[in-house]
Amino acid sequence: AETVLVRQQSHEELCKVLALNKAAAAHEQKLVVVSVSPQSRASLAARCKLGLLETAQKLTTFLKGLGVHHVFDTTFSRNFSLLESQQEFVRRFHKQAEDKKALPMLASACPGWICYAEKTHGSFIIPHISTTKSPQQVMGSLVKGYFAEQQHLPPDRIYHVTVMPCYDKKLEASRPDFFNQEYQTRDVDCVITTGEVLKLLEQEGVSLSDLDPAPLDTMLGRAAEELSSHRGGGSGGYLEHIFRHAARELFGVHVASIHYKPLRNKDFQEVTLERDGEVLLQFALAYGFRNIQNLVQKLKRGKCPYHYVEVMACPSGCLNGGGQIKLEGESSKEELQQVERLYESLRAEIPEENQAVRELYEHWLGGWGSDRALQVLHTQYHAVERASSALSIKW
Ligand code: SF4
Questions:
Q1: Does the Cβ of 42 fall within 6 Å of ligand 1?
Q2: Is the CB of 214 inside a 6 Å radius of any atom of ligand 1?
Q3: 387: pLDDT confidence band, cut at 50, 70 and 90?
Q4: What is the DSSP letter of 142?
Q5: For a FRET experiment, which of 43, 115, 185, 385 has its CA 20 to 30 Å from that of 335?
Q6: Whose C-alpha lies nearest to ligand 1, atom 1?
Q7: At residue 320, does pLDDT exceed 70?
Q8: Helices and strands, counts by H and E, the chain
């Protein structure tokens, strides 16, 4: 199963599809869409010594030169993941008295963590995991749903590729939950890592710096003039967004700035909201396997004090993912800092204020919290019997 996965999800596979597309009759050609993660862009920018906007524009030129039709940014779909996570947390908070597993809510955007949870502590942990889809899989739903409709194409006529900072995203895209039975197509057909994009550039003999910039595409048809990001760090900013939203919605508190308190190490930090000495909200970040194991043990002993935990498998989070480019001649710490500096240099957007996101909620999803939004933007998890598992997890 793993060999098939590696073959289906590689830059070689993308090249094969692009070559077949060029040779095919017009009515058989696929519309090729590539969605690039902001973590990958930061890694490429650091490697090519370019700004983030230039990197995005030149990467668009490169990919379109290969035969790709549209290049999107998964920061857009992350708005939906953040908004849905915020609302899901508030729903769970209200349910905690009648449902003991409603809290803590655990983040769901990291497939390394999800695989581990399903395989090792399945039915015990699963109810705690947020059902909100990751930005990659929300992008899959948007591209094969909304965008396909706009293009008057069935979902299987679109070939959707994502560029991600880790290999585990390939596993995520291959989950049966993200396979459209009616059209026999996946929401994300192929995932390539940032390192594989570099291999593609090398294979084509192209240096990103030498290319002309191209305008950036957006799903709603208007060209994007600038890039934006979200506050709260390189793993998506889930903790910060949910914390601010919950403080406002549940306790009427406007949080001006967030203070992270390191616990055992920099990959295990805590954030609390207190009023008159009473803890109203207690959130944590737990990155890396050791901290995750520690969290799971706390949960099992009924001693986990948190309402929400942003769980990520990689130490330092997604900017340090295994699929990122290793910079030459720099120590790994400096190289990570460089990628972090670039990543954090963008304007931070507030998901609630994004006009295009509002329009999609209103016109395509039928409003905030609608049944359709739940159906399109959420997923489920499955306890996996250890003995029958075909996947292996590498930490
Ligand atoms: Fe991938 Fe690592 Fe981010 Fe998890 S933390 S999504 S494994 S890069």
A1: no
A2: no
A3: very low
A4: I
A5: 115
A6: 166
A7: yes
A8: 16, 13
Distance CA 363, CA 123 (A): 37
pLDDT tens for 19-29 read: 999 999 988 99
Q: Whole-angstrom distance between the N-terminal and C-terminal Cα of the chain?
A: 19
Task: Report the pLDDT value the prediction gives residue 265, as an integer from 0 to 100.
Answer: 87
Residue 245 belongs to what H/E stretch?
Answer: helix 238-251
Q: Is residue 314 within 6 Å of ligand 1 at its C-beta?
A: yes
Tokens, residue 176: 């049966």
pLDDT tens for 239-273 read 999 999 999 999 999 999 999 998 988 899 999 99
Residue that has been written with the tokens 């294979």 in this structure? 203
- The verdict on the CB of residue 312 being under 6 Å from ligand 1 is yes
Q: Is the dihedral of CA 13, 15, 17, 19 positive or negative?
A: negative
Q: Is the pLDDT of residue 59 over 80?
A: yes
The residue whose CB lies within 8 Å of the most ligand 1 atoms, and thus the one to mutate among 74, 162, 168, is 168
Q: Whose CA is nearest to atom 4 of ligand 1?
A: 110
Amino acid at 220: L
Polymer length of the chain: 395
- Burial (CB < 10 A; 0-12, 13-18, 19+), residue 54, is middle
Instruction: Tell me the three state secondary structure of residue 230.
Output: coil
Q: Write the residue with the smallest CA distance to atom 6 of ligand 1.
A: 110
Strand blocks (E) in the chain:
31-36, 70-73, 105-106, 158-164, 179-180, 185-186, 190-193, 228-229, 261-265, 268-275, 278-287, 308-312, 347-348
What is the reported pTM? 0.94
Whole-angstrom CA distances from 169 to 128, 193, 214, 300, 391 are 21, 9, 27, 28, 13
Q: Is 233 in the pocket of ligand 1 (CB under 6 A)?
A: no
